[in-house]
Every structure is written in structure tokens, then in C-alpha cells.
């Protein structure tokens, strides 16, 4: 239907938009349920209903290194004569700017790749994927870089899960962001009044449970999701849009890893 040519950091990419008829698979029975907690050092922690810790996606260290490299390249470029009204940018600036663009593109691609692989694996292997319905717009106001990166990774993660679960017949359930997934004990249900962000281990004063904070939260989310799938709205309920909407959901950037653009049958 269309082709788009783009240049980024000296690399050229051509993406094609194609229309392929694909039948939407029947929704699967909600047997394999996974809750996903998102964080900063561990980007995605996944656990099942019975408390099995099945997914751990670390925020790769090389991202942090690459980001330092990017900041360094940006500082060099900023000291050189860039494009201004009436003056041409210097050759030294062009060279420095090229380095900035290439580093930028490298980081973006690596992150996109990680999110793509994780969301595909989840949508294929689990029937119900439960995530927190986080307020991304509010979080981006936070100026801490690591937090910003984690937020960006979360927004794209949720967006991809939304359409990939439709492709593979699984379901995405979003749990209300006010549900205290981190403060609740996954063993006895006691809710702590306070839990500091520094507490990496959840310890329950009532039943004695000691468990990684992220895993505890992920188990709680999985259980909340199960409750959601058994509600009157039916499995996945509001999160499964009508088939006709699907054509708009795939992004051209994913053409290299995702082969199909879904259209309504
Ligand atoms: Zn407890």
C-alpha cells in the first residue's frame, strides 16, 4: 500500500505497509496467567498465580553505558558551531552531531528489540497477561533519567501487548493503578500501610512471608487479573476491541520483527 524511506544516524530504512488478511484466533481459555510488575533495575518481573517466578528482564547495563556515551557526545557537539540563522554549521559540529545521532539510534533500536522480544514471548506463551494501568503521563514529569527510561519502556510494552494479545488470541488485563500490588502480602493478603521504594524485599509481619518485592507484586497482579477474567464483562472484557479496529494498531517500525499487519476479517 505504501513505502516510507527514513534516514537516521546515517542509516537508511525502507518500510512497506502491506495489507494481509489474517483470521483472529479464538480467545484462549484463561489457564496460563502471568502478572507483570515493572521496575527500574529489573524492567519486567513476571509471576504466575501459584507464585512461580517465571520472568526476569533486567534493564541491560550496556544501555546505561550507552547513555553515558550519548551524554558525552552531546557535550562535545554543544561546544562546536551548530546550525544558526545566517551561519552554516561547522564541519566539526557535523561530525560530532553524527556521533550523537548514531549513538541515539543504537540505544533506541536495542530497547525496541528487547520490548519486541518480551511482548511476543508473553503473548504467545500466556493466555492472560496482567499489568498495572500506570499513569504514564504523570510519571514522565519525574526528572530522574533511569525512571524516565523505565517509564518509556513501560508505555511501549503496554502498547505492544495490546495488539499482540489480539494476534495470538491471548488477553491483556489492566489492573487499576490504585490497587496496592506492592503493599499487599501475596500469602495472607495483609496490606502494609507503608512500603519504601528502597525495600527490595517484602516482609510480612502477619504471616512471616519474605519475598522479593517485585515478585510479590507480580503474584498479586496475576491474582487480580484472574478475578478480572471471571467477572461479568467476560475474559479480557473492555480490553479486546472490535476486529475492525485492528488495522491501525501495528506500527511500521515493527515491520522487521513482526510480519503481519492485521486487518478485520
Ligand atoms: Zn502475609
List the helices and strands and how they pair.
Layout: E1 2-8, E2 11-17, E3 20-21, E4 33-38, E5 42-48, E6 53-58, H1 61-78, H2 91-125, E7 128-132, H3 136-139, H4 145-168, E8 171-175, E9 201-203, E10 210-212, H5 213-229, E11 262-263
Parallel strand pairs: 3-11, 4-7, 7-8
Antiparallel strand pairs: 1-2, 4-5, 5-6, 9-10
The structure holds zinc ion.
Zinc ion (ZN) is lined by residues 185, 187-188, 190, 204, 206-207, 209.
Can you tag this structure with a few keywords?
265 residues, alpha/beta, five-stranded mixed sheet, two-stranded antiparallel sheet, 11 strands, disordered C terminus, binds zinc ion
What does this molecule look like?
It is built from 5 helices and 11 strands; from the N terminus they run E-E-E-E-E-E-H-H-E-H-H-E-E-E-H-E. By secondary structure, the chain is of the alpha/beta class. The chain has one domain (2-263). The strands form 4 sheets. Strands 6-5-4-7-8 form a 5-stranded mixed β-sheet. A hairpin with a 2-residue loop joins strand 1 (2-8) and strand 2. The relative contact order is 0.18. Mean pLDDT is 80; it is low at 231-265. The structure holds zinc ion.
